[in-house]
Amino acid sequence: MDERFAGAWRLLGRTLDSGWKIVEPVGWDPKTGIAADHYNGTGGNFSVPYIVERDGKRAFLKAIDLTSAMKAVNVLKELGKITSAHNFEATLLEICQGERMDRVVVALESGQVSVGPNLQDAAPYLIFDLADGDVRRRIQKVNQRARVAWWLRALHHTTVGLSQLHSRRIAHQDLKPSNVLSFGEREDFRIADLGRSVCDGTIGPHDDLLFSGDWSYAPPEIIYGHIVPDFSKRRLGCDLYLLGSMIFFFEQGFGCTRLLLERLEVDQKPFLMNGRWQGDFDTILPLIQALFTELLGELQSYLPADFSVDLTKAASELCNPDPTLRGHPLDRGSAANQFSLVRYISLFDRLAKTAEISLQSDSSDD
């Protein structure tokens, strides 16, 4: 690799002090740096992925790429931004590990390695358990017969992971199929990539952003620029929408936001989505609600009959375009936690078990 690239691109073949050997790049050509594919081990921007090995175990290493910082007008300022984001993610991962969040991908190790004397030769890194892949891709390899049981269990584990994060006031903000990873032979799904998260009470690099996640999944109030100051309503409510959007993805191949935007005329779309809407969110909300109702009807027709009512209801509650109505109706009272996921954890677990039992019964009949 050309030495004009930062040290993160030149780690292949090196052995870390902890004994991990960096054995192969993931999804990119070590000669050119060109990405032919992207394995989302934990996601993250400004990073270079590798496979590492130690004592017969393989893991995933995410090295922080400082190349862009070295090309910036203010190098030190850009370095500070990138390293601050890395340190913030590492801090959140330590919190998750300390709280034993078993449905969140936590780091096995963090540190820094250098391949030369210059600033850009340093490569901060994080090492994670090696996943089989993200659910966006893995679902394509699940046979049609087992698919519903598989994604319902993935949805259940994802909801548990999100609830674990919320228990420490960590809002993921970038929950989507490519950030939910599948591990091992048994069903084991965990939320990955806390690099875009925000944490109530802890200063982070994304606190001042309108939205720090993938805009193609952002909830309606966000894409129309409607900001609610309250942390729970803005951040946790956003996470609930992203969770519910995964139901649409699993059954229709796209998240709720994309499906909504496809139904809007250009004059109704927000500027952030190449539209020309000039009014406020409250004015467009009745139209969005009407289109959302249409989407729910379509979703129910796609879903298997045994699960369609429960899952459509969950999608309607989690993804409600009006953030004040988001969450389970029984949790929206004054003394309740509107953004509690406890009821959805139970629901998705029950539905997954039902689907798994049905699958086992069908298999025994064969």
Describe this structure in words.
This protein is an alpha+beta fold and 366 residues long. 40% of the residues lie in helices and 13% in strands. The protein contains ten helices and ten strands. It has helices at residues 67-70, 75-98, 135-138, 144-167, 220-223, 231-252, 256-261, 281-302, 305-318, 342-365; strands spanning 21-25, 47-54, 57-64, 107-114, 122-129, 133-134, 170-171, 180-182, 189-191, 198-199. The strands form three sheets. The protein has a five-stranded antiparallel sheet, with helices on one face. Strand 4 (107-114) and strand 5 form a beta hairpin. The termini are far apart. The mean pLDDT is 92.
Could you outline the blueprint of secondary structure elements for this entry?
Blueprint lengths: L20 E5 L21 E8 L2 E8 L2 H4 L4 H24 L8 E8 L7 E8 L3 E2 H4 L5 H24 L2 E2 L8 E3 L6 E3 L6 E2 L20 H4 L7 H22 L3 H6 L19 H22 L2 H14 L23 H24 L1
Antiparallel strand pairs: 1-2, 2-3, 3-5, 4-5, 6-8, 7-10, 8-9
